[in-house]
Amino acid sequence: MKALYVFLSSLVLFGLISVSPAEAAAAEKSIDMYFLEDVDYDHWAYNELERFVYSDIIDGYVETESFEEDGEEYEYTSVSIKPKNPITRAEFTKILVNSMNLCAGETVKSFPDVKPANWYYEFVKVASSQGIINGKPDGTFRPNDKITRNEMAVMIYRAFESKLDFSATGKVFPDVPKGNFAYEAVVKTAAVGIIKGYGNVFKPYNDATRAEAIVMIDRALHLEPETDGDQLAIIQAVDRNIKDETKFIEQQDLKALEALYRETTIGYQLAYSLDSLDMAGMFEESDVIFKKEQIGEYAIKAVSVNNHFAQVRIDNLVYKISLTAPDMSFNMKIDLSGTAHLKKSNDGKWKIYNVVLDEDDYEQDWKETLETEIN
Predict the structure, then answer these.
(1) What mean pLDDT comes out for the span 290-316?
(2) Does position 5 have pLDDT exceeding 90, yes or no?
(3) I need a labelling partner for 196 at 20 to 30 A (CA). Which of 58, 216, 297, 370 fits?
(4) Mind listing the pLDDT tens digit for each residue in 242-267?
(5) Helix, strand, coil shares of the chain as percentages rounded to 5?
(6) 374's torsion region: left (phi>0), alpha (psi -120 to 50) or beta?
(7) Residues 6+ apart with CB under 8 A from 368
(8) CA–centroid distance for 122 within its chain
(9) Are 345 and 307 spatial neighbours (Cβ–Cβ below 8 Å)?
(10) Cβ contacts of residue 236 below 8 Å, gap of 6+?
(11) Taking 60 as the threshold, does the pLDDT of residue 9 lie above it?
């Protein structure tokens, strides 16, 4: 599945490609918009934060830094999540609406402090039409206020009330008594594991952090069951991506590859795939002969599926790759077995947002192989 990237990267490694910016295929977001600068792998919410960034539910805070090397000035772009920062009511509303692929219903409630020109207007419109937000007692929404943990629990409960089974009895926190407006929401969401609390307390009036908000929404999303046909749809999506990518690479049809990537991938995987195409302009005007031959038969099976996310195992995806150019040639075998991660898009189609290969030291392995194989 990532054979195109591997092949093109190997060419770049040995200086065989030079592509101008005008030749590059334009992605909605470039690959560097997915580099998480301030969240380490051992962060307690890393998986959820990465999932939301990689699947384009959130964008993060894009930061660009400049540095100089050998007299040349370069820019480095990365994304900060700021997981410990508080999150506003508008920001939380946007994430909730995006993650659930919600659309506006018939009855929309208006708020005097939410204007059409505001970036959050459409998200608040959708959330109000779905009964997720009602606003404050004075009729305002207060979009820029920090959202509290109890407000967050109420919004999640309302959003998923018709989608999840909340009949179980949950944990009762002493700091969320029955008189609290969020009592039912906290008890019900705690019962299904959406909220955990801090030991025996919930701290309802604490400002929610960005990490807490994303993790709670993610837990709720993973509880929503799959719908009919989802398992077949995710397997077909991955299978098409693999087969058509191989076919179009052999045909050296870059336009078809770009169309394929836009139809079967989103987020990080789309940017990753289009970024590889930026280096592929050499196909049409070069003497390079590239062949990619599948070895054996690969197998695809669903690992986990719910109404929003899915994981698919790809086993025995092995290729023999050969390249012949005027100044060099090589042959190598690559194993692209791994796990594809998918997200259901607004139109109900499953799309790949990340592929994690089995081999941790995969990139170093193929570089070492190339250095050995080149004649």
Answers:
(1) 93
(2) no
(3) 58
(4) 999 989 888 878 899 999 999 999 99
(5) 40, 20, 40
(6) beta
(7) none
(8) 22
(9) no
(10) none
(11) no
